[in-house]
Amino acid sequence: MVLNDKDSGLETISYADAAVRAVGDAMDADARVVVLGEDVGRGGIFGQYRGLQQRFGSARVIDTPISEAAIMGAGVGMALAGMKPVVEMRVVDFALCGMDELVNQAAKNRYMFGGQGRVPLVARMPSGIWDGSAAQHSQSLEAWFAHLPGVVVLCPGTVQDNHDLLAAALRCDDPVVYIEHKTLWGQRAPFDPASTARIGEAVVRRAGQDLTMVSWSRQVQVCEQACEALAAQGVQVELIDLRTIWPWDRERVLESCARTRRLLVVHEAVQAAGFGAEIAATAAEQTGCRIARLGAPRIPVGYAQALEIESRVGVEAIAAAAIKLLK
User: Fold this and answer.
1) CB-CB neighbours of 41 under 10 Å
2) Which position among 137, 163, 181, 267 bears the catalytic label?
């Protein structure tokens, strides 16, 4: 069902529907694009493939056995044979069962064979804290893949970006680790079908001169709430949505840091060895600005709500970290 946004004149769709559109358009345009994974025929567990098997048939939207290693391995083989597979891992936690095929095959093939082989697959790995889903279904592992040479890493945090960045990923000739947030699928927003996005390009969600705040994925929305609270105290934050973890938009972030002289990096992932450390170190080396990081404690995400809350980086903590950095 599609609603119309009265103010913008744009239709309002969900984060999941935005992904369906991107994949469907790519499949219409290029017969080499296929989907494979568990439950994709019935639309995926989040509805991110809803209706695609009915449109394109079971030979292009392929239900697989419950074996992430087999799914990823088949995707790598398809890509090397000239196809453009969308490899569905259900959640990033399950993708760990297919890591060898991604890390030692997909990521390295182009380099090891002098460019003779290319692996243009998109590995979709929904990430982040999934309400009430505990330690094995709530991890944020984008830093693992940023550390892996040979792959692109994308983290869309809005409805529009989930369409535009997925479309960009499907045009890419290298393996893309595409990390959607598990709790955003039902979120709805106005959608512009003419919009596009470039891999490696961040977006300034809010302009400001007192402090630079960098985040990505769902955590950007929490940061936006913190920015509103800080604005009420007279603090104007420049909020940057990184969107691409690798290659990240160094120029935009460093320009902002050089201007505000303060940087706060916020992410949902565990703070220890999180990707925020790379941003912080680069900003320190290049601009010498004051820096703080804020991420989750190094604990498994608990099942009980009180324990789960301990792993979340909330509005109050973000605002407090910003005020401390300004002193």
Assistant:
1) 17
2) 137
CA distance 225 to 50: 32
CATH architecture of 10-191: 3-Layer(aba) Sandwich (3.40)
Domain spanning 203-326, CATH class: alpha beta
- CA–CA separation, 46 and 17 (whole Å): 10
Structure tokens at 39: 């439950």
Q: For Cα atoms 123, 124, 129, give the angle at the middle one, nearest 5 degrees.
A: 135
Q: Please indicate, yes or no, whether the overall pTM of this predicted structure exceeds 0.85.
A: yes
Phi, psi of 73 (to 5 degrees): -60, -40
Residue 137 designated active-site:
yes
Q: Where exactly are the structural domains of the chain? A: 10-191, 203-326
Q: Strand 203-206 and strand 237-241: pairing?
A: antiparallel
pLDDT of 2 reads 36
What pLDDT does 9 receive? 82
Confidence band for 257, pLDDT divided at 50, 70 and 90: very high
251 Rama sector, left if φ>0, alpha if ψ -120 to 50, beta otherwise? alpha
Question: Distance (Å, rounded) from C-alpha 37 to C-alpha 91?
Answer: 11
